[in-house]
Phytanoyl-CoA dioxygenase (Hypocrea jecorina), 338 residues
Amino acid sequence: MLAVRLHAPRLTSRGLATIASATKPPPSPSPGLHWPAVVRPSVNEVKHGRLDERNLEKAVRHIHQDGLVVIEDVVPHTDADLLNAKMVQDARVLQRMGEKGPFNYNQGNLQQDPPPVAEFFFPSIFTNTIATQVTSAVLGPRPKWTFCSANSAMPPLPGASPQRQPVHSDADFAHPTHPFALVVNVPLVTMTPENGSTELWLGTHNTDISYQEGAHGERASGRIKEKHLRDRKAVRPPIQPTVKKGSVVLRDLRLWHAGMPNPSDQVRIMLAMIHFAPWYRNPMRLQLGEDLKPVLEELDRQGQLGLDIPVDWVSSEEAIKTYLNRGFGNSYDFDQAP
């Protein structure tokens, strides 16, 4: 369904039985493997919204090996531009809230939801069939889409110093040792080090919470301990890649990463949808405007959805009125019920 990870009710299962996580350090990569793998679909693959067997294998392999893969040229730039124009306006509103705004770790990295109504819903972005083909191949058929938001790297306000996030994992709880959730990131502009592209620590998705500090629910939970950062840097240093507009980035939820400063004068927005495995018992739900219901139903009827989407439907007027005033950061619980 559309692009809005709802203010859904969240249930915590902190302290309840979850699948034990591994304690082995992340494996060493092949020599010279420092940058994200990129899949470049053919014109025919993009036209039909499906990768061929070889490209699908490559995408799945690198999600397992590196915890991340980039698929280029699958989102029309016109769709990205239209959504970006609206979300940049919203980002400036949120930035002016200062300490009361929805920032993660620092005010230069905002979490903001896209407008959850049909006017701004682009299937090429929110229900991209190639992205869902890959997440289904890794997680199982009809993954559950229960989170939709964005990370906005903001230009610093006058007099403010750019700040980076600490290196962290979004899986700040005892989690399965195999893939259970993939983040579908869609940059609305080309991401570069000059506008705050995310720092990535490829191959770190096989670690557990013993590598982290900060309890779940704290604003800065999931931080990776300095000792482990030093050890990992000696094996495979972090990267801050350039990712082209029109791309989709698929990232294992467990992967270490960090939001970086945006010293430019332009807002850099990267959407983040989470697909959970169909067996994963996360209780979150999206909240969407009712005018999206027939859109999603038609996509499903045409076989263009491929997702299970738990939704709390509200009027479109209510959705527009409330979507910038939702939870953020660790107010969302990505754990599963026992």
